[in-house]
Amino acid sequence: MKNFADKKVLITGGASGIGRLMAEKLAKRGAVVIIVDINLEAAKATANEIKTSGGKAYAVYANLGDLESLKKCKAEISAMGLSVDVLINNAGVVFGGEFEKLSLDKHLLTYRINIDGMVAMTHLFFDQLRKGQDSNIVNIASASGLIGLPYGTTYSSSKWAVIGFSESLRLELTERKITNIHVTTVCPSYISTGMFAGVKAPLLLPWLKPETIVEKIIHGIEKDCAFIREPFVVKWVEFLKGILPLRVFTYVNKILGVSTSMTHWKGRA
User: Fold this and answer.
1) What is residue 268's predicted lDDT score, i.e. its pLDDT?
2) Catalytic residue positions, numbered
């Protein structure tokens, strides 16, 4: 994507965290941002701040765990006369704790939001993206989608699914010779937005600043990058998994603190 001028950018979870920051920065670059969030009041507040600053923004309610809600979201956006050029599947939830002590409801909710909601949004808006001359699908995964994460089993596995879905869709578009839609998968380590409060960042994987990863994401969209892996050491995870014996790789994870990083997760208050 050469530039964002007048591009209609839909961001799920756009009322807080890196979603909000992306909305603000993309609006400054001339994009029309559509902030989709379960917290409509926060979405409206974000949209109003963007408009006060001279940007263009809309706020739309959606519960990513409810398909009917997502269908209504699409209908509302279409009724506004908007057709999405860039879909950023950013919304997600995380719950930490010992597997059997975490409620089944929270495990299943993680999958509904992080996977089902992402697939549904991509499917619902695919027709609009297909009609665009230069469209993008951006799926926010995680470095934990490349490696197991104790005390965060369903979060990690949901992000494995995000990566698998994104890569499969990207390759399918290539096979079908659909060249106007680009798929970008984002795999960051822990971001200091509050979602991972209580986590102890592993060695060599320092906390990412929201501003840093958002700039990387925007640059990646502009360059139609297939993957964005941050910080640098994340780029080596798959290689190390491939060359190291399993016991050695497991030991390295423990020494670096990856395996225990979620032990004291608290999340947002």
Assistant:
1) 80
2) 155
